């Protein structure tokens, strides 16, 4: 296990019901419960989805640079659907990639690389 990368986040109650404060490497973020009636901060579910979509952005952007693909911009939109009966599970997740500066074939290959990792 010597070659394992360990990421660590500490989350604590904030004093506001339904809101947690999370910290990692000196960075702090407030996250609201997805079941809070009127969330003010990103919700836990939105933060999870943001982690997945931002991974798509950074992985594709870095792979394009390493491969010499002339990417000039990328947007990844992610939507997670949950039923009221099972709000703790995503019934479906859809990601849409908009990649600028490349051909359709190059964009398809970049997304294929992301899906393969």
What is the secondary structure topology, with strand pairs?
Elements: E1 10-13, E2 19-24, E3 27-32, H1 44-67, E4 73-81, E5 92-100, H2 104-116
Antiparallel strand pairs: 1-2, 2-3, 4-5
Helix pairs in contact: 1-2
How would you sum up this structure, described in words?
- With 117 residues, the protein is an alpha+beta fold.
- The protein folds into two domains: 1-42; 43-117, K homology (KH) domain (GMP Synthetase, Chain A, domain 3).
- Helices cover 32% and strands 29% of the residues.
- It is built from two helices and five strands.
- It has helices spanning 44-67, 104-116; strands at 10-13, 19-24, 27-32, 73-81, 92-100.
- The strands form two sheets. Strands 1-2-3 form a three-stranded antiparallel β-sheet, with no helix packed on it. The chain has a two-stranded antiparallel sheet with strand order 4-5.
- α1 crosses α2.
- The longest helix is centred in the middle third of the chain and has 24 residues, at 44-67.
- It is globular and about 50 Å long.
């Amino acid at each position: 296990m010597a070659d394992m990368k360990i990421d660590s986040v500490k989350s604590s109650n904030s004093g506001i019901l339904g809101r947690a404060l999370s910290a990692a490497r000196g960075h702090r973020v407030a996250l609201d419960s997805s079941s809070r009636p009127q969330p003010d901060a990103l919700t836990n579910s939105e933060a999870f989805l943001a982690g997945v979509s931002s991974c798509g952005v950074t992985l594709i952007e870095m792979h394009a640079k390493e491969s010499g693909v002339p990417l000039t911009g990328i947007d990844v939109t992610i939507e997670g659907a949950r039923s009221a009966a099972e709000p703790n599970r995503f019934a479906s997740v859809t990601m849409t990639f908009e990649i600028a500066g490349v051909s359709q074939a190059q964009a398809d290959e970049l997304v294929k690389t992301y899906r393969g990792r």
